[in-house]
Amino acid sequence: MATDIAKGASQDEAAAAGEAGQGWPRPLYSWYVVGVLLLAYTLSFIDRMILTLLVAPIRAALDISDTEVSLLIGLAFALFYTVLGLPIAWIADRWNRRNLILVGVALWSAMTAGCGFAGSYATLFLARMGVGVGEAALSPAAYSMLSDTFPRDRLARAMAVYSIGVPLGSGVALILGSFVVQAVLAAPMVDLPLIGPVEAWRTIFLWVAAPGLLVCLLLLTVREPRRHGVRQPAAVRGDAAPPAPGFMAHLAGHRASLGALFAGMSLIGLVMYGVIAWVPTFFARTYGMDVSQAGLWFGIIMATGGAAGLVAGGTLADRLFAKGVADAHLRVMRLSILLGGPPLLAAVLMPDATLALAMLALAFPMLTMHGVGTVALQFITPNEYRARVTALYFFVVNLIGLGFGPMLIALLTDHLFGDDGALRYSIALVTGVALPLAAIALTAGFSAFARDLAETGDPAR
């Protein structure tokens, strides 16, 4: 037994030494980088969602309507987050990615704190725009960094752990809504050092912005990784291998595989963003549960189940890919739909809240396995374009998923069913149509993805 353990340890050390010899960082440091980026991603989602928990006091303080609040939550953030993600990603493909992320974290944290000091609707709108601009710098640069920090056979797990920031940040925000927010709002005014008395709701923005300083300090301990697989001009390489194609030529040449990924993830996002937006209200309207209580349980399910599903999906994709399954990541995405779709559909049709929560707890670990789609993008994209392709991916997926998912469910409730109590059927209809279409789109892209992977094979890996 001791001999086997020693042999295994020596093999791990040899593998690590081999990776270091090829320019890959040591595994312990690589996972440290993942941890820092995960912390940044989690914080970004808390900062992004915190305003949704403070609708009532913000409306009262600024004397604004529901429509104006919805613009603060959605348009002010999402428009600049998605559109500016493209030029920022262009910078990430050329500049120091660590420094770009550091600037982004500092900007969105300062703007989140600024939301707490906004004295008018216009200043709050501008602050929310700033949060979106800052957060746009994170994911495209982070995915590109991770692709140069981990070899292909371990990349899916690393990106899955990073992606835990989505359910973890969203879950923490919902849990905050059930505990901390109510506790803070119980006090009418709070005395801040050097500032004086301010309305209690404003201090919540300061509390969620403060950890950004810690993340900035941690980012200073992260090194910009060497870019693997960058295609040099023939005169520099001394051979006749072709350089990377132009960005638009790359998109056109990979339209089948990229189209399958974009379509599949957009349809999944349509369902996921819609469910996240409306599930607490669904529990209130269907079962008479308090919205804060529903948010608490749903937040726990998202944080734990979502994290477990992302890690499971990344591990499964890595193992299948190591066994030679070229389209492993698309297959895992389709599997997540086949396993998670039925319990999600069943959840909104359950006769009581306990069964509905149980079905959601079963569905979320399965559905979040689809997060390996971002890994597939890195595999078929040259290093020169990774940040831009990732930003384009987020632009499309967020525009369709975040932009239309919650709205589509609301439109069906208002205009097809014409009954607030029919929210469950709107969720069921969107889920029952969008997820099968996503599975079909992903299946159609299997062969194209395998072919593009072979053609875009990164020799450094």
TrEMBL record:
Keyword annotations from UniProtKB, A to Z: Membrane, Transmembrane, Transmembrane helix, Transport
Subcellular location: Membrane
Membrane association type: Multi-pass membrane protein
Extent of the signal sequence: none
Pfam families reported for this sequence: MFS_1
Record domain Major facilitator superfamily (MFS) profile: where: 33-451
Name under which the protein is recorded: MFS family permease
Native species: Sphingopyxis italica
